[in-house]
Amino acid sequence: MRGRRLSLGHLIMIVSGLLAFLLTLTLVRGRNEVFRVAVAGRDIPAGTQVSQSSLRFVDLQVDDGTLRRFVQPADVRRVTGWVAATSISAGDPVTLSELRPPAAPNGLAAMSIPISPDLAVGGSLSSGDRVDVISVDGQAGTYLAQGALVLSVRGSGSGGLVGSSNDFSVTLAVDPQTALAIAVAIGQGDGHVQLVRSTGAERQPSPPVPAPTPTPTPTESSQGG
């Protein structure tokens, strides 16, 4: 007995059904995907700074669109030192819209300085520290700011600035005139701005301090002469 052949219409219907099933399965799996998101580890009153200890992470089923609203593990270094714009109760999810970058106090400006960790106290800075800003131009160095407040540190890794220097910046509270001077120094290229941890001692304005001159290496002719 000869079997019946499927017509082209039947084949189209079967293939369409399979495609619809696969599409539905993909969407269902996407909606049920689990991600790590931040929740408040304790009550965070409005106006207080967020630290790493303020957050803890839980698994949450969200879609990709909703996920972008929440603070994720990769965001922790960026938002550390930011201020809560609204009160967040312990256990509530923390969204990026609830946090604001820190503002400079006393009418100062908040200025971000892109810098290598090697030139920023080895990358160990954090919000609340005080630093001096030094400009190195050729063979001379000058202080551009003294005791500037660190508002936030942007970078990845533990302990402050770690990784590629293109990812690092330190935000300081400075007056407008100092901000212009720092901007000029930054514009001169990498290595022209350095940060040192402030001792709190007052420094009087002084002329540029010459940088050490490398000791010339004796040549073979001078050694033999």
Residue runs with pLDDT of under 50 for 5 or more positions: 156-165
SSE order, as H and E? HEEHHEEEEEEHEEH
Compute the number of helices.
Answer: 5
Relative helix content:
10-25%
| Gap between N and C termini | 112 Å
Secondary-structure map:
Layout: H1 8-31, E1 34-40, E2 55-61, H2 64-67, H3 76-79, E3 83-84, E4 99-100, E5 109-114, E6 130-137, E7 140-154, E8 169-174, H4 176-187, E9 193-197, E10 209-210, H5 220-224
Antiparallel strand pairs: 1-2, 3-4, 5-8, 6-7, 6-9, 7-8, 7-10
Task: List key phrases describing it.
six-stranded antiparallel beta sheet, 5 helices, Type Iii Antifreeze Protein Isoform Hplc 12, 2 domains, 22% helix, two-stranded antiparallel ribbon, alpha+beta, 225 residues
Q: Can you walk through the features of this model?
A:
This protein is α+β, with helices and mostly antiparallel strands and 225 residues long. Helices cover 22% and strands 27% of the residues. It has 5 helices and 10 strands, in the order αββααββββββαββα. Strand 6 and strand 7 (140-154) form a beta hairpin. The strands form 3 sheets. Strands 5, 6, 7, 8, 9 and 10 form a 6-stranded antiparallel sheet that branches. The relative contact order is 0.13. Residues 156-165 have low confidence and may be disordered. It has 2 domains: 34-100, Antifreeze-like/N-acetylneuraminic acid synthase C-terminal domain (Type Iii Antifreeze Protein Isoform Hplc 12, Alpha-Beta Complex), CATH 3.90.1210.10; 109-206.
